[in-house]
Write a structure and sequence with these properties.
Elements: H1 2-17, E1 26-27, H2 33-40, H3 53-63, E2 67-68, H4 80-83, H5 88-97
Parallel strand pairs: 1-2
Protein name: Copia protein
């Protein structure tokens, strides 16, 4: 999530240099409900003290409404087509969502 967040910040900075200022939060889709809940809930828990500094920057961006964290089901995660070996039917489904088929 922190790598995606750093890319969002870079892209928003690039758009700002081109005089295209983004006023709405950028959605960072995640399929990990635990990560979403930890980010959205500012309460410190003993079980989350191992989380690194990257997490704090994501939480700050979430609280400042720079990003939103909508949940997306693992079955609908389009990025899986680039990172995982998928069964044929799932590959076809995700390819169609990316408009990679005729």
């Amino acid at each position: 999530m922190s790598l995606a967040y750093s890319k969002i910040i870079w892209l928003r900075g690039l758009l700002a240099e081109l005089d295209f200022f983004e006023t709405y939060p950028t959605p960072l889709h995640a399929d990990n409900t635990s990560a979403i809940q930890i980010t959205a809930n500012p309460v410190y828990h003993e079980r989350t003290k191992h989380i690194e500094v990257d997490y704090h920057s994501i939480r700050a961006a979430f609280e400042a409404c720079v990003i939103t964290l909508p949940h997306i089901s693992t079955d609908l995660q389009v990025a899986d087509i680039f990172t995982k070996a998928l069964p044929r039917h799932r590959h076809c489904l995700l390819s169609s969502k990316l408009m990679l088929v005729d």
